[in-house]
Amino acid sequence: MSKQELPAAFVRQMESLLGSDTEAFLDSYERPRTHGLRFNGLKLADAPQLKEAVIREFSLTPVPWCSTGYYYGENVRPGKHPYHTAGLYYIQEPSAMSAVELLDPQPGETILDLAAAPGGKSTHISSKMKGEGLLVSNEIHPERAKILAENIERMGVTNAVVTSAAPDELSRRFPQAFDRIMLDAPCSGEGMFRKDSGAIAEWTPQLVELCAARQWDILQEAYAMLKPGGTMAYSTCTFNRSENEDMMERFTAHYADMEIIAMKRLWPHREAGEGHFVALLQKRGEPSGGGQTLEASPSERQRPRRKGRSGNGKPGAGLQDAQSALKAFQAWADEELPDFALPAGTPILFGESLYLLPGGELLQEQQLQGLKVPRAGLHLAHLKKNRIEPAHALAMALSPQQAAKRITLAAEDPQVSAYLRGETLQVDASLKGWVLAAVDGLPLGWGKASGGQLKNHLPKGLRQH
Ligand SMILES: C[S@@+](CC[C@H](N)C(=O)[O-])C[C@H]1O[C@@H](n2cnc3c(N)ncnc32)[C@H](O)[C@@H]1O
Fold first, then answer.
1. What's the distance, CA 84 to chain centroid?
2. For residues 128, 350, 300 and 174, what is the CA-based torsion angle, rounded to 10 degrees?
3. How far, in Å, from the CA of 260 to the mean position of ligand 1?
4. Were 24 and a residue from 63, 254, 269, 313 both cysteine, which residue would form a disulfide, CB within 3.0 to 4.6 Å?
């Protein structure tokens, strides 16, 4: 794009914000946008050698503020590679990687990503949580929440629940519940101009005001959900002060127990990236000082709930079914996934789908009732009349060696693209039943083998054409 395309009111706004730096800032619009990818720690453990191979193949160079983040050039397409489908990395704008680095999530914590689709921050958070603790990943728009759920599944995340709720619906159910909150707020998108000319067309000073008003509303709900002692990262991909520093000043002036710990700006004329604002805030108080906790007791972490008991320990309708479903799944897994240890969680049934709800004692099925929940934790299986059909999400959360039957293909093998197109593969005639298809040590999905053919079970919506 050219800087001539920028709205005059935007240029004036940036002049008053940047002074003598304005020229350099505006010149950055004459340069190509940056591209980045971030490796998924959840997958690297299974195939550490692939990181170096990908770095070489795509001539990646490191992003200074994110140890798993790398730049790639505009002529390479890592998003089209089977390793992307296998969840080895997530394509993410480099400066956006700064937000979760500042939030610094830890394994075992209870974390909310309040405006999460398509999942850049959530998949970054889950990579740092290493499967321990609970991530509630929320997106208000149902269609976007579906994409979020798919990305979370692709990355092999086991400890995330995806909800699709307005922030106030969520805060009624989760008061003072989270150790950390990521609020990557909907904003006027001034940092998107190089990437998306639609963002330039939509920008007006009124849009900035509208976004600031909405951010203020969302911040109230985020505040209500943060535990005392908890931390929150607020980020935007826009440059004006109203949605950034001014918003943080207004917020901390309104809530005397909120303190700004750090504020960071990434500028497209100073760093290689499209630009981002991130603030880290802390709520004063003791972490145990009242409110709700979503932590499981140590014994709850180890095993699913007892048969015939509901999430709160009282007899509950329907849970009997979830428990029998889990039992049936476990019998299937004993045969088919001999080295697979079921992660901590409570079984939950949505129609014929069996999920494992993470979060232990205090994240209960009841809390989710009435909410849209595109993904109630790890999707284990579809329950057909007399049989178990393993879910795609389960495949993506496995190490291939956990599957009794598997085929491992090399990335350049034409069978990989055939599998990803949904085609039937020819396999050894001795293979029978559920087979995990993998690429270079990373799972891609299920197939069902019989008579030397592998019937493709990649979900239709994920097939590549
Ligand atoms: C900047 S994007 C989030 C990007 C995401 N965190 C990521 O890293 O991939 C902001 C999100 O907020 C959502 N949103 C819009 N209006 C909202 C509202 N009133 N409350 C909460 N979220 C909203 C948008 O649908 C959008 O997905």
1. 14
2. 70
3. 22
4. 269
Architecture of domain 399-462: Roll (2.30)
Fold entry, domain 3-159+171-283: Rossmann fold (3.40.50)
- In this structure, what are the phi and psi dihedrals at residue 421, rounded to the nearest 5 degrees? -85, -5
Query: Does the structure's ipTM exceed the value 0.90?
Result: yes
pTM value is 0.93
Q: Is 119 in the pocket of ligand 1 (CB under 6 A)?
A: yes
Which residue ranges make up each domain of the chain? 3-159+171-283, 298-396, 399-462
- CA–CA separation, 246 and 33 (whole Å): 27
Determine if ligand 1 sits within 6 Å of the CB of residue 118: yes
Same fold, 3-159+171-283 and 399-462: no
> Can you tell me the distance from the alpha carbon of 261 to that of 392, in angstroms, rounded to the nearest whole number?
41
Answer whether residue 70 shows pLDDT above 80: yes
State in Å: Cα 225 to ligand 1 middle.
Answer: 17
Substitution site in 95, 123, 141, 220 for ligand 1 pocket (most atoms within 8 Å of beta carbon): 141
pLDDT, tens digit (0-9, with 9 covering 90-100), for 170-191 = 999 999 999 999 999 999 999 9
